[in-house]
Amino acid sequence: MAHTLPLGPVVVIGASAAGMAAAVAARRVDPKREVILLERMPYYAFASCGLPEVIKGNLPDITPLVHRNPQELGEKLGITVLLQQEARRINHGRRKLQVRNLLLDSEYELDYSALVLATGARPAPPGRTGYFTLRYPHELDKLLGQLRDNSCRRVNVSGGGVLGLTLVDALLSLGKEVHLYTRDTLLASFPPEISLLLVKLLEEHQVELHLQEQAPPGNREELTLLAHGVEPHLPAGLRLGRDWDQGIPIDRSCRTEVEGIFACGDCARPRYAGRRAGAGGAATANRQGKVAGANAAGGKERYNGVFAVLLEIAGLEVGRAGFTLAQLKQERQPVASVSGNFRLLPPWLGASDLFMRLDYRPASGEILAFHAIGVRGVGSRINQVAGWIQADVTLSRLHNLEQAYHPRYSAVTDPLVALLARTGKGVK
Question: Which domains are seen in the chain, by residue range?
């Protein structure tokens, strides 16, 4: 079906990773088209992933993480950035957006030809008395104030996923007593071998683990952080579909069911399944934003990303590309796995092993998932396998794979090549 959009302004709601990428992409596809970026906060392009670095003290404050000068983006890219402007209601029949100016406490209408929803997500569940959430700059200021208070001796983190472990990693540098509460195992979407290694690692760093327990509310002497992840956030006036409150359904073009309206990032819910669907995070938001913005301006882009995640905890890198553990269990076709510990460096440079696991379809050699944990070398290999999955590279095509060699980066036989050889799919 051909999609023809009128040549009016492209309006993007939300100026975080997805919204910024959408606005830039729309401008790139059609430099003559007016692009308007709306943001209800007094800043745009807030890099929330940098908040743990402020906690650690690697950044003095949040200044490098936020942009507050919209004229800068206008001068560089010709994008109109309107801060402290809240999108209230969509009148799609008239192609008008009702907006509240939070500075003047007044409302006005904004015309659009295409609309990109990039309203992001909110903590799940929302913060409540005695519990902190960490997503916005003002929340960090309050958190740092209590962390620096000498009377606060203990910090509880509720959530054993990527966000929870990232916060634990940041808190370990403060010399506080750290307790981690989780309703499941650590990194439940990862194989159990990695979860067990993480349990051992945290115990070595005196982190108290409370499995299948609920974190208590904080008080003057202890602080509790909620890190259960996020849920889609979309104001009621912007919900044009029945179930948009659970995430806006999109196809691979980031189109919604409503002609001329696109969605991307944490507020979106892909209508397609599998390892290409993504599962949130800045990389997924950025790529979906590029697709949504380009198509809103008349392009023909498709989202074909692979969900890959990487985190660092207490000096170890942990990562995954492709299917989660739950998705692997739902596979109807046979799945084979190979795994093990592999020497990363030559023995004369000291012991530095990687644990890796590869899941694949034995009949076709299709790569489904790759997991790794180690002191170093995880990130580059996660990205390498993610690229193979995205390009539909099967194991048979990796026959005679060679990697660059330098003793400070890998052994003569790269650990990834050694793992592939265990599949017996023609890889030597």
Answer: 10-122+230-296 (3.50.50.60), 137-226 (3.50.50.60), 308-421 (3.50.50.60)
